[in-house]
Amino acid sequence: MSFSNWLNFGSGNLELFLVAVFSFIGLMALLYSISRVKGSARQLTEYYIFLLLLIGAGVALVFARELLLIFVLWELATISLWRLVSYFRDQEAVDAGLWALYINFAAAAVMLVGLVMIQLGLGSWSLNELRGQELPLFPALLVLTGIVAKSAALPLYIWLPRAYRSAPASVCALLSGLAENLGLVLFLKLFVQTVKVPEQFYLISAVLAVGSALIAGGVALTTRTIRDTLAYSTVSQLGFILLALSVRGYYGIASGLLYILAHAVAKSGLFFAAGTVEDASGTGELEQLGGWARVSPALAGATGILTLSIMGLPPTLGFFAKLGVVLAAVRSNLLYGIGALVAALFTMLYLSRFYARIFLGGGSSRPVKISPMAVGLVIVMAVVSIAAGIFWFVPVKFFEGGW
After folding, report:
1. Rounded to 5°, angle at Cα 65 from 62 and 69
2. What is the per-residue pLDDT across 99-111, written as a single tens digit (0 to 9) for each?
3. Strand partners, 9
4. Is 71 in contact with 109 (CB distance < 8 Å)?
5. What does the CA dihedral 289, 292, 295, 298 come to, rounded to 10 degrees?
6. Which of 97, 153, 156, 313 has the fewest CB atoms within 10 Å, measured from its CB?
């Protein structure tokens, strides 16, 4: 094996698009952290070190052109995720962080075997040199194992709900908007842009994607807390993105990339809203909430826009992204399209329930203190979701020449 020149980076319009998305989510998470995350000087120092390390690893992974370098950055992101999820240091948070570490580390070990097999079989770590080469099914599936764990797809999503219950809202926003997209980025860079793999591989990944979207969407209909609803929603929406990339073609790639942007912005904003409500009310139980539209009309309106984007309704970016995924799925396989439509219906049902339980109804009439900074960040995310929906063709024109 040759380890020379393994620190190899490259950029194009596609990389710049993804980095812009991840950097924006990272900036918003930092701003939310400054206003809402509390702790001792030592705790906060560690928190910001690992927060910046996660953002830096994600951005660097987008630019990386060597599989060995991608793996190193992948593991740095896993270590950062572990420490951030465990931030509060109570038993539940520590267990959730360890659970995330163990599953992602074990899956990454399997992935590393696949990467080594790629190097031994095809003779290079470099994505540039691997372009157009044929990769057998087995090493491709080993790499897919790591991708499935990182991007929380069926069946290795099980670490994610526990992490979301325990981590600060800013960390959850960063996980859903950046960390869990890293697996999808590797899928795009390796299996869509670079090597040729047997069609059975894309069949397997598409089935896992549809299964994740459907099963997680169904579970989200039965959840009782804000965090659990958003956790299973994230698993379901990441399934949509994986499905789009698995069917490939122009519609698949373009809608998958749009969906990364739409979901990252909207879901991060929903976590900022969730943290605001939890901090002010002292609970995340949906049955104990209600009436928040009267408490903060601005927060209710902005959160409503973000839920519309995740649902895939106009005029938000989520509408164009989800429409593109459904079109790509139907063009590839009618069953994929039916699965995507049913999962989209689940999304509308559980997010309608989520919004109604928090913002509508009677609720408590006692005064609460709300962070203006947190509400402002949710409003920014809502504005971006609408603006990107109106001008959806701008990012498409920018990145479509990059694949």
Report:
1. 85
2. 999 999 999 999 9
3. 64
4. no
5. 150
6. 313
Give the Cα separation of 58 and 325 in Å (integer): 24
Q: How far apart are CA 168 and CA 163, in angstroms?
A: 10
Cβ atoms of 244 and 320 closer than 8 Å: no
Which own/partner contact pairs does 153-156 have at CB distance under 8 Å and 24+ positions apart?
153/183, 153/208, 153/209, 153/212, 153/235, 153/238, 153/239, 153/242, 154/208, 154/211, 154/212, 154/215, 154/216, 154/235, 154/239, 156/103, 156/107
Omega of the bond leading into 155 within 30 degrees of 0 (cis):
yes
CB 210 within 8 Å of CB 336: yes
pLDDT tens-digit readout, 28-56: 999 999 988 988 899 999 999 999 999 99
Q: How far is CA 325 from the centre of its chain?
A: 16
Whether the Cβ atoms of residue 176 and residue 232 lie closer than 8 Å to each other? no
Q: Is the pTM of this model over 0.85?
A: yes
| Angle between helix 67-85 and 91-122 (nearest 10) | 180
Q: Determine the average pLDDT of the residues in 266-275.
A: 96
For residue range 204-223, list pLDDT tens digits in order.
999 999 999 999 999 999 99
List, as one string, the DSSP characters of 121-138. Answer: HHS-SBHHHHTT-B--HH
Q: Are 245 and 184 in contact (CB under 8 A)?
A: yes
Beta bridge partners of 126: 66
**Helix axes 159-166 and 91-122, enclosed angle (nearest 10):** 140
H or E element in which residue 189 lies: none
Q: How far apart are CA 146 and CA 185, in angstroms?
A: 12
Angstrom distance (rounded) from CA 258 to CA 396: 8
What type of residue sits at position 217? G
Tell me the backbone φ, ψ of residue 66, rounded to 5 degrees: -125, 135
CA-based radius of gyration for the chain: 20
Q: Give the CA count within 13 Å in the CB-facing half-sphere of 279.
A: 20
pLDDT digits (tens, 9 = 90+) for 61-80: 999 999 999 999 999 999 99
